[in-house]
């Protein structure tokens, strides 16, 4: 059984958003194309879903986005971003041009004001998790196809957790965009080391 896992295709990460990923809107067409032309048993979408004054916001600490970072309780470094994906704002909505259907599963993450969560499975200190792993196991999913935003943050973390949860994991390259070239290169290397399989949307459509 297979699941398409679409990470954080939300306005704030797209054109004119507060944490815009370059060319993010280019992934809408290939994602819609695979969901229309391939038969996944389940489609899940994650949403970065922060409260105001979230720990990952530079403004919360009177610091500068991207330049400053802070050390969190569990001793890891938290990068600081512009305010983004605040619950129930335009910026946190999934892009209107992405196809969503009634049976799709929506996973909210990053709601804890003190702990960030890049992955759709576990938060960054691995102390709490979303309902995603249970839902996938309940549906007997063994293959997870991951895509979305951003390759070097939430897509990477979701791919690594997917492998750790025991799923055969695929990263769909042309359905994802990253923040920096360096970050993406390092992320691809980490994925490779974990045995994640790289594919493009055309591979899925040819083999459907
Ligand atoms: C993300 C940075 C902060 C992402 C979310 O979706 O990749 N990146 N919050
Ligand atoms: Zn975030």
TrEMBL record:
Record Pfam families: Isochorismatase (PF00857)
Q: Does the keyword Cytoplasm apply?
A: no
> Can you provide one Gene Ontology molecular function annotated for this UniProt record?
nicotinamidase activity
What the entry lists under CDD domains is as follows: nicotinamidase
Keyword list, A-Z: Hydrolase, Metal-binding, Pyridine nucleotide biosynthesis
Domain Isochorismatase-like residues, every copy: 2-201
Say yes or no: keyword Hydrolase present: yes
Q: Which InterPro entries match?
A: Isochorismatase-like_dom, Isochorismatase-like_sf, Isochorismatase_Nicotinamidase
Pathway note: Cofactor biosynthesis; nicotinate biosynthesis; nicotinate from nicotinamide: step 1/1
Listed SUPFAM superfamilies: Isochorismatase-like hydrolases (SSF52499)
Q: Name one GO biological process term.
A: pyridine nucleotide biosynthetic process
Quote the EC number: 3.5.1.19
Database matches in NCBIfam families? PRK11609.1
Question: What does the sequence similarity comment in the record state about its family?
Answer: Belongs to the isochorismatase family.
Please state what the protein is called: nicotinamidase
Q: In which organism is this protein found?
A: Dictyostelium firmibasis
Q: What is the lineage of its organism?
A: Eukaryota, Amoebozoa, Evosea, Eumycetozoa, Dictyostelia
